[in-house]
Amino acid sequence: MRKYIGKYIFLFLTCLFIGVAVYLFIEMTSEKEQGQRQTLMNRVAHELTQADTDDIEGKLSSIVSSTDFAAEYGNSNVPSDITFVRPEEEEGSYSEVVGADYIWSIREDGEIKGFLVFSFEDDSKTGTIVLCEAVVVICFLVSSAFFLYIDRKVILPFNRLSEYPERIAKNTDSAMLPESRNRYFGKYIWGMNMLRDRLSGETKKLRRLEKEQLTLVSTIAHGIKTPVANIKLYSEAIKSGLYRDDGIPDAKDSEVADKIAKNADDITELLKELLDSASGSVVVFEPHVEAFYPGELEDFIRTEYDNRLSVLRIPYSIDIRSNVLIESDKEGLERILTQLVENAVKYGDGTGIRIVTDKNDDGYTFTVSNKGSRIPESEMPYVFRSFWRGSNAEDTEGNGLGLYEAKLIAGKLGGDISVRYLEETKETEFEVFLPL
Predict the structure, then answer these.
(1) Angle between helix 251-280 and 186-240 (nearest 10)
(2) Residue 255 forms beta bridges with which residues?
(3) Do residues 421 and 375 make contact, with C-beta atoms less than 8 angstroms apart?
(4) Residue 108, beta-bridge partner list
(5) Residue 414 backbone zone (phi > 0: left; psi -120 to 50: alpha; other: beta)
(6) Beta strand segments in 229-315, E
(7) How far apart are CA 314 and CA 348, in angstroms?
(8) Burial of 383 (0-12, 13-18, 19+ CB in 10 A)
(9) Does the reported pTM lie above 0.70?
(10) Angle separating helix axes 294-312 and 330-347, nearest 10 degrees
(11) Under DSSP, is residue 75 helix (H, G, I), strand (E, B) or coil?
């Protein structure tokens, strides 16, 4: 939510600005009205000052009845009552005059003849300000509620979903997004799952074609190797004079034989490069070293497998025994662990998967263990070969590249992967080692 605090601050400041603007507008309007009232009261007081003392009440009545104050000053600025109070009147009335808001003294020769008391309708300025400020507060609350709704129903779910394209880009076997009734993202989730299935299918098809290509290249290469080796043997025989009647090597024959042998060696080297290129192009990986904690790998695995293993009812545990900073390629380690966990899901018996990370004096270790279909001891040396599949994988879908890829990435990170069968726990354990 901290990413969105800025917009709430902006909303608050906007509403505050509106509130202050409304307040200033009302104050300006009130000051204008006050000026009109002051002008009206000054006019009435000035006219009464020139009237005879005994006839002030009559003069006041004449002014009020003969003057259209509303037309000149506005209805809101017309007094509801104008009263003249003489000083000699009873104390009660005099006290009321002293406490009034609008009073004007009428003087003659420096002496007070009396007081003009102007009464207006209740001033609605305070009520108007309160009403306007209440409207501003309500608008702020409604806008905040709207933003919170958008955050919870749109932005936060989308932030979680936005990580999925990157996940399937790294691993097309990523778990499918859980179906949702969210009206905003239901179709998006359906589309992403369909894209994931499509990419997964295309990847499997590509792997199959790559295997066929590598098989074809290997067959051709090995088919060429035999005649090339024979050619080289013949060149050695010619160079030794084996085919001459006298059995004595000839200088010219030796020169030709050397050229034939060199060409045979060149062909052999090209075949080796062709095989290495065909095999190496299957997996593309270039390390990008960064600092991270093993706990980040745990977050990745839980995000990737929590829902999937829950649906499959396969319990699993992650034990971070030493959460110290690692200098390596996090994405590469994620790819390795994904392959190992995928194998544990495919070939395990569903009783559980254990993932442990630790550190010792030599380096870091990451182990994935599970019970289930055991790899025969005789096949252990071959499990990391490209496109190789063990006898225990006949009924399980796969392409024989997962462990090969994991081994290649571990090697590029300066480490290695080993596999062993634990007799005491009846588990197959894969261990990834990265040196310090």
Answers:
(1) 170
(2) none
(3) yes
(4) 111
(5) left
(6) 290-292
(7) 9
(8) buried
(9) no
(10) 30
(11) helix
For the chain, report the end-to-end CA distance as a whole number of angstroms: 38
Burial class for 8, CB neighbours closer than 10 Å (0-12, 13-18, 19+): middle
Q: Where are the domains of the chain?
A: 2-84+118-125, 186-280, 290-435
Integer Cα distance of 330 and 334 in angstroms: 6
Query: Judging by beta carbons within 10 Å of its beta carbon (0-12, 13-18, 19+), is residue 80 exposed, middle or buried?
Result: exposed
In the chain, % helix, strand, coil (3-state, to 5) comes to: 60, 15, 25
Q: pLDDT tens digits, residue range 253-300?
A: 888 888 888 888 888 888 777 766 665 555 667 888 899 998 999 998
Domain 290-435 homologous superfamily, CATH: Histidine kinase-like ATPase, C-terminal domain (3.30.565.10)
C-alpha 297/C-alpha 321 separation (Å) is 13
Question: What is the C-alpha separation between 97 and 106, in angstroms, rounded?
Answer: 13
Write out pLDDT tens, residues 187-208.
777 777 788 778 877 777 877 7
CA 159 to each of CA 149, 165, 166, 303: distance values in angstroms, whole numbers, following the listed order: 15, 12, 12, 14
Q: Give the Å distances, CA to CA, from 291 to 324, 328, 349.
A: 10, 7, 36
Q: 374: alpha, beta or left, given left = phi > 0 and alpha = psi -120 to 50?
A: beta
Q: CA 375 to CA 426: how far, in whole Å?
A: 12
The span from the CA of 257 to the CA of 251, in Å, is 10
DSSP, residue by residue, 77-146: GS-SEEEEE-TTS-HHHHHHHHT-SSEEEEEETTEEEEEEEEE-PPP-HHHHHHHHHHHHHHHHHHHHHH
